[in-house]
Amino acid sequence: MIAVMLRRLLARLSRSDPPGSTGAAPAGAFRSLRNRNYRLWAVGAFVSNVGTWMQRTAQDWLVLAELTPHNATAVGIVMALQFGPSLVFLPVTGWVADRVDRRKLLLVTQGAMGVLALALGLLTVFGAVQLWHVYVFALLLGCITAFDAPARQAFVTDLVGTSDLANAVALNSMSFQAGRMVGPAVAGVLIASFGTGWSFLCNALSFAGVLASLSRLRVSELHRTPTPAHERGSLADGLRYVWHREDLKTVLAMLFLVATFGLNFPIFISTMAVSVFRVDANAYGLLSSMLAVGSLIGALLSARRAGPRMPLLIGGAAMFGVGCAVAAMMPSYVFFAAALVVIGIASQTFMVGANSTVQIGSDPALRGRVMAIYLAISLGSTPLGAPIVGWVADTFGPRWALAVAAAAGLAAAFVGRRYVMRFRPTA
Fold first, then answer.
1. Cα dihedral sign for 78, 199, 154, 171?
2. What is the pTM of this model?
3. Cα separation, 339 vs 325, whole angstroms
4. DSSP secondary structure string, 10-44?
């Protein structure tokens, strides 16, 4: 059943090449890389993404296996502290992303995140780290990310303009997932060989890549959006704009369900690895890499499409739900790892499509604020879902936590299907 559904989804994605495509790829799928500024950004971002995933893997392992007795709730609290500020600072972050020089803002935020990684790494290497330290650093990182993320998302438009925006979003996702494929595996080796702290230090070093890329961009070639004139109540403009757009509201509602209860991979993977399959750090890192393999495939297939479509969002959400249900029933480490590949493909089909839909469908003058709403839901919903999913994993077992994710994916597909049935002429 799962194999049949996966083949159908892959067939649909493969038919979604841009008009005139030969289906042989790479040229169309990687067309944004013809842009020099985007090439520089992509290289620096990939280096940083590898480091970011090394830190995420090491942080989860540190909390679950070294600082607590396999406490998934503690992992959920760390995730809540790290992603909660995106929701708290929502009225400000999108406004800032629309009004300041995004390149300069990213130089500040990326540099600050590098400093935090360095400090946490030194504490861990010297054996001084405690659980409350991880909580504090997660909160500080969350506050910086709240301003970094919407500016980084909107900055893609500055790099490539609107014509290649969907492709650039997909390539960004590919870079992120490639980092997820490499980073956890490297982190697993580092943790087993030298200790957890060295993954944090490597992440701190990786920020040099993105800072160098930002410094070398040709500013004159950026596609800048005119700064909107200030007017009373402008902080709420993005919310009012989204409220009157049924398509955007539907995508964001689907995103809320999947992000809140479904994208808690650190909890799912770490608890299944430690509590169910009882594997070491190397095998744990490999599970994260298997998820990334699927995510990379999903992002690559998304890059081949001319643009996002609601049927693909619905299909991605449904496949995500089915994949999580199958993963929850897998009897062995190997079969669970295989199920993670399917989950990765489905999650990226949905997430890349949702991101592109929101960016392309938004007024350029409000794009930063709309993306702040998108990211507040994508990242800020974690404080609501992660502690709940962590509690389910601790109380009923990791497999039931995956069942919650399965239900969320299927519910999101239902929401999208309901929109299509109501607005079929415009869907």
1. negative
2. 0.71
3. 9
4. HHHHHTTPPTT--S--STTTTGGGGSHHHHHHHHH
